[in-house]
């Protein structure tokens, strides 16, 4: 099933994220990625949710989320006309024998080395989810000690989104 990215503008107050996430959980919808951030208006937050479901299920998700009192607007993002980004922090085992090879991989992907110790290296990479996946694939021969991905955050290209 294709990846769908939903952008939800909600009132910025306590409990909104819980209400949105529990709606998905109660209906049996699996969330692949969820990010929440402030917007230019302090009264509004943006929730970006990534799901893999068919069009009928997606339509149901949108209708049920739109009914929530705190939801100001919900709309699917056309990924061809949107900017999707994700942040990765990854700690790799890096001794003297493989440190330069790992550094070369980091340079190719434009990852930033943010910590270096005797036995490990921590890198930061921001980019499209496919870039993050590719970076992790190339790093797979090395021992990944820890990693954390933020999940997708996204905006449409061009002017301000006006759907309502």
From TrEMBL:
An example Gene Ontology biological process: isoleucine biosynthetic process
Pfam families for this protein: ACT_AHAS_ss, ALS_ss_C
Amino-acid biosynthesis recorded as keyword: yes
PROSITE patterns linked to this entry: ACT
InterPro entries, per the entry: Acetalactate_synth_ssu, Acetolactate_synth/TF_NikR_C, Acetolactate_synth_ssu_C, ACT-like_dom_sf, ACT_dom, AHAS_ACT, AHAS_small-like_ACT
Highest taxon above the source species: Bacteria
Pathway in which this enzyme or protein is active: Amino-acid biosynthesis; L-isoleucine biosynthesis; L-isoleucine from 2-oxobutanoate: step 1/4; Amino-acid biosynthesis; L-valine biosynthesis; L-valine from pyruvate: step 1/4
EC number: 2.2.1.6
Cross-referenced NCBIfam families: acolac_sm, PRK11895.1
Functional description taken from the UniProt entry: Catalyzes the conversion of 2 pyruvate molecules into acetolactate in the first common step of the biosynthetic pathway of the branched-amino acids such as leucine, isoleucine, and valine.
Family (UniProt): Belongs to the acetolactate synthase small subunit family.
PANTHER family: ACETOLACTATE SYNTHASE SMALL SUBUNIT, ACETOLACTATE SYNTHASE SMALL SUBUNIT 1, CHLOROPLASTIC
Protein name, UniProt field: Acetolactate synthase small subunit
Gene it is expressed from: ilvN
């Amino acid at each position: 099933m294709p990846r769908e990215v939903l952008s939800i503008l909600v009132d910025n107050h306590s409990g909104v994220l819980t209400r949105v996430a529990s709606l998905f959980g109660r209906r049996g919808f699996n969330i692949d990625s969820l990010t929440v951030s402030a917007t230019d208006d302090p009264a509004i937050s943006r929730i970006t949710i990534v799901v893999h479901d068919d069009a009928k299920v997606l339509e149901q998700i949108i209708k049920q989320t739109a009914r929530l009192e705190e939801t100001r607007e919900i709309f699917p993002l056309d990924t061809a006309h949107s900017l999707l980004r994700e942040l990765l922090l990854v700690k790799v085992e890096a001794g003297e024998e493989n440190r330069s090879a790992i550094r070369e991989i980091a340079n190719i992907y434009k990852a930033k080395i943010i910590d270096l110790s005797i036995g490990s290296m921590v890198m930061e990479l921001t980019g499209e989810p496919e870039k993050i996946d590719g970076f992790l694939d190339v790093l797979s021969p090395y021992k990944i000690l820890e990693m954390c991905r933020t999940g997708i955050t996204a905006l449409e290209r061009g002017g301000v989104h006006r759907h309502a």
